[in-house]
Amino acid sequence: NSSYDLYAYWYEEPSNQLIDATGNWWGTTDAGEIADNIYNSIDSATYSPNVDYSGYLDAEGGNPIAMNPLPPLSADTTLASGQSYDVLDRIVVPAGVTLTVEPGVTLNFLGNSTNQRIQVDGALDIQGTQANPVVMGSGLASPSAGDWEGIFVSSSATKFVLQHVVLEHADRGVEFETNALVEPGDCSVFCVQDSVLRNNNYGLYLTGSSPLLDGNTIELNQQDGIYMTTGSSSLITGNVIQNNSQLSNSYSGIYIRNASHPVISGNTVTGQRYGVRIYPQNRSLANNAFPVV
């Protein structure tokens, strides 16, 4: 087919719709290629529904490939400890809904990179442990940075706790939209703690938000380890931020822009062109707080 193998569009309330396209042969067993040829909610969240294309065949007339797809969320949901899930579409945590992820869960992102992400409009509580972290990354045969979009924390999110997570192969590992949430300091409301963010394009990307960033390892990302702009004022403490700027020798461990004023304390920052780069851009020294390093 010249455009799409399946094109679903112009639905009313598409977030409540699911097309069952399981058990088909799509001309390939490459999940990314299959996803590229399905037009669904990844392409238009406003008008297109989710499409479940799990269990696709291993050949024409062949057998279904075993997988455990993560379904759309419409109520509070807990992903049970030790389970592995295959993510075929965008996962939205709606306002008023909490997604809880227990230790040892694995999320394999099998679709294409365009908008395939976990979008947090409600609450996300990921509680891995040191012995059993939660693992999130590309499920493609040859994984690389940008295979999926990452976690997007919207301005309406009411809780975001990420503890003991290994997050890889995203465009922006975690992206924070402008949000007024305040973290009290014990990683109970708004934080990324004791996690590993590596092999993404950006490790963390903050716009006008101030989560606690504590005890993480942020390494081997293509661009900046932490990028913050538009008044972000996180406490960044006890992190190892190393060997980012893999794409070219022009990125930073921590890049601070546009009226952001974090407090940076007790970190190890090494292996980039710039360890901490501060670019205030049209700010007045007399009228604005500056980062504390």
List the helices and strands and how they pair.
Elements lengths: L5 E2 L10 E3 L10 H6 L1 E2 L10 E3 L24 E3 L4 E4 L3 E3 L4 E4 L4 E4 L7 E4 L2 E5 L6 E5 L11 E4 L5 E5 L1 E4 L3 E5 L13 E4 L2 E3 L3 E6 L4 E3 L2 E3 L6 E4 L5 E3 L2 E3 L9 E6 L5 E3 L2 E3 L3 E6 L14
Parallel strand pairs: 1-3, 2-4, 5-8, 6-9, 7-10, 8-11, 9-12, 10-13, 11-14, 12-15, 13-16, 14-17, 15-18, 16-19, 17-20, 18-21, 19-22, 20-23, 21-24, 22-25, 23-26, 24-27, 25-28
Describe this entry's structure for a reader.
The protein has 293 residues and is mainly β. It contains one helix and 28 strands. The strands form five sheets. An eight-stranded parallel sheet has the order 5-8-11-14-17-20-23-26, with no helix packed on it. An eight-stranded parallel sheet has the order 6-9-12-15-18-21-24-27, with no helix packed on it. The protein has an eight-stranded parallel sheet with strand order 7-10-13-16-19-22-25-28, with no helix packed on it. The N and C termini lie far apart (56 Å).
